[in-house]
Design brief:
19% strand; 4-stranded antiparallel β-sheet; alpha/beta; 6-stranded mixed β-sheet; 547 residues; 16 strands; 19 helices
Length: 547
């Protein structure tokens, strides 16, 4: 839990990014559901999540660079990394504006992060985001950001940083509630602005990072998405940038290396080509977002201005822009904790994503794997409970590209193995998903880990170097060696019944352990089979599944 602080230091910035990512992960679907402006394409929550994910990854990289020493990054290093990560990873209209908000804050906080600087940072953020939008509209995230900045100015500097960020959060909430009365399209749909809703979530995370406590008055999600008729009915009535029916056909986004004068000329050129124009960044690197009918002309304008790259072109009807070979009907994408399981799953026909120890895959890696599978239908197995939001965002992104994706919330590699074992591409997609989900759900999972320090657990106090047996994610056994701890874990799991035990051995674990555990199961439990796989280089010495 973060501690109350008068300054936003690097650790607090790191915590803020992590909490904001968690908050947007929880609210992503609800925000997507109320996305009716500027285009009713249901992706604002996903785009905000992906943008903050990139920001958080950049901050983590800064901390990783300091791991060899005893110091932590400076606040300036952390906020600049956050802003840069958001800039290069910004998705959609909402993500691009959020990136500029974070950049505006970073410009101020890099010079100091006390209460007064936080207030000034929010003011700079709101002003810079408004300047980045070609035609600002009230009742959007820009209005919410301005209200947060105004509210942050009210507490005295002596009140401290927690009071400033709480005031900003409350001001943003109040402004968000008023957006349906400011923007007709929101009022007709009966929703608040989706981008503003996302900003409130990000500011709520800032409150918790600075004060150590989540906002007492959290924003309540709607119990259901707006009626489809309401969403469809607003498409033809919105001002610039709205509506796939009457508005531009393509969304074009790219990073651009260019000078300030060239970017000003680019703004004028793109403003004449389409709408929803947002250009954010500075110091030679920019993120360009625009909705146009002529995607080629938008890219050519970027070429004339400088060097565009990471070009993404999306058709609002989810049509493919480039001819591709005929895709396969169905594929499975699975996250694996070691190269040994990667080979096993690949032999079974799955597309794999390697989760290295301490480096879980980002949603972009999962989206790339889904594309690489080259199938109309994809089953996604994350095999880690902590990846649930990341996997959900990746699935939503792939669906926006026209791929049918089913996310089975597997929490461990052995559950993924069980699901993959019953995968049958010849049956219907829904039947296949149901069977794979049932197989995963029927598999209890455990792993052995080495305690890094003395700690309280559900099984008692452990010491550094103890062997921990975790069953379904909780410490159930504390032992002194791997074989004895593994036997105790198996006994606890098999006490509830089981027909098949799966053992996945880590790289440095001898085959003799598998032999001893197989013998233990054979002698103590009739009609229970055991299968053994080599996991290769994985973080846990032993993974166990019982189904």
């Amino acid at each position: 839990m973060p501690q109350t602080a008068d300054d936003l230091d690097a650790v607090a910035v790191r915590t803020w990014c992590s909490l904001a990512l968690d908050a947007l992960g929880r609210e992503r679907e609800a925000i997507d559901a109320i996305n009716v402006y500027p285009v009713a394409d249901g992706d604002t929550g996903t785009n905000l999540y992906l943008t903050v994910e990139s920001a958080a990854a950049a901050v983590e990289a800064v901390f990783a660079a300091h791991e060899t020493g005893t110091s932590v990054p400076s606040t300036a290093d952390a906020v600049r990394a956050m802003a840069h990560g958001a800039l290069i990873g910004a998705r959609g209209n909402s993500g691009t504006i959020l990136a500029q908000l974070l950049r505006g804050m970073a410009e101020v906080l890099a010079e100091g992060a006390g209460a007064g600087r936080l207030s000034l940072a929010l003011t700079r953020a709101a002003a810079s985001a408004r300047e980045a939008v070609a035609h600002p509209v009230e009742g959007t995230v820009l209005t919410v950001a301005a209200a947060a900045a105004a509210a942050a100015e009210r507490p005295a500097d002596s009140a401290g940083a927690p009071a400033v960020v709480r005031a900003a959060y409350e001001g943003a909430r109040t402004a968000l509630d008023a957006t349906p009365g400011q923007l007709a399209v929101l009022g007709r749909a009966g929703v608040v602005d989706a981008g503003g809703r996302g900003l409130v979530a990000v500011l709520g995370a800032l409150v918790e990072a600075v004060s150590g406590r989540a906002p007492e008055r959290a924003y309540e999600a709607p119990t259901a998405p707006p009626p489809a008729a309401a969403v469809a009915g607003v498409a033809g009535d919105c001002s610039a940038g709205d509506g796939p029916q009457d508005g531009p056909a393509f969304e074009v986004i790219y990073l651009l290396e260019a000078g300030d004068q060239a970017v000003e000329r680019l703004r004028t050129r793109l403003d004449g080509l389409g709408d929803s124009l947002v250009v954010v960044g500075g110091d030679g690197l920019w993120n360009v977002h625009v909705h146009v009918d002529d995607a080629g002309a938008a890219v050519e304008a970027g070429v004339e201005a400088g060097r565009p790259y990471r070009i993404r072109i999306t058709h609002f009807a989810a049509d493919r822009l480039h001819a591709r070979p005929e895709p396969a009907q169905r594929a499975v994408v699975v996250v694996v904790p070691g190269d040994g399981l990667g080979g096993l799953c690949a032999e079974a026909g799955a597309t794999t994503v390697l989760a290295r120890p301490g480096e879980p895959p980002a949603s972009g890696e999962l989206v790339d794997a889904i594309r690489r599978a080259h199938a109309r239908e994809v089953v996604l197995l994350p095999n880690d409970g902590d990846l649930r939001h990341t996997a959900a965002a990746a699935a939503e992104q792939a669906r926006a590209e026209g791929i049918r994706v089913a996310l089975i919330p597997t929490r461990a590699a052995v559950q993924g193995i069980a699901a993959l074992a019953v995968h049958e591409p010849d049956r219907s997609f829904d039947e296949d998903v149901v069977a794979m989900t049932a197989a995963a759900g029927a598999t209890r999972y455990a792993e052995l880990a080495v305690a890094e320090r003395q700690s309280w657990t559900m099984a008692g106090i452990c010491q550094a170097g103890d062997i921990l047996g975790l069953i379904d994610g909780d410490v159930a056994v504390i032992g002194e060696d791997v074989p004895e701890t593994a036997r105790k874990v198996l006994d606890r799991m098999l006490a509830a019944g089981g027909e098949l035990v799966t053992l996945v051995l880590g790289e440095d674990v001898p085959d003799t352990l598998a032999d001893r555990l197989e013998e233990h199961v054979r002698e103590g439990y009739l009609a229970v089979d055991t299968v053994v796989y080599r996991g290769g280089h994985q973080c846990a010495p032993l993974l166990i599944g019982v189904e």
